[in-house]
Design brief:
three-stranded antiparallel beta sheet, alpha/beta, 3 helices, 107 residues, globular
């Protein structure tokens, strides 16, 4: 697995017009927002999010309630979180009551 990260990736993203960005994440917590581990990957994710018309986080249900090392963004930066059907109903309700759009149906 190889990825394109760092300053070179950020600079090249400026050349794109993105209608929808789908971003992976390591942690999703109500009071901490989206969190992740890698400085380089976070910089690229933030750049991608800044040029996209719509932003969706894609994460399985195990990421909910997890706080990783570094902040990525809060929920106001997102159009929704796409997750699997295993997300606990109480957790889903708690996020939705706080204005977070949860999209599920993936297994």
């Amino acid at each position: 697995f190889q990825s394109f990260t760092g300053r070179l990736a950020e600079d090249n993203l400026e050349k794109f017009h993105v209608s929808k960005a789908f971003v992976s994440i390591s942690g999703i917590a109500l009071h901490h927002g989206m969190t992740d581990f890698s400085f380089e990957e976070i910089a690229v994710k933030k750049k991608l999010m800044s040029i996209a018309n719509e932003v969706y986080v894609v994460a399985d249900s195990s990421k909910f309630g997890v706080v990783s090392l570094l902040d990525v963004c809060d929920f106001t930066a997102l159009n929704g979180i796409i997750t699997d059907t295993s997300l606990d109903g109480n957790i889903r309700s708690m996020f939705e009551k706080n204005g977070v759009n949860i999209i599920s149906g993936i297994n």
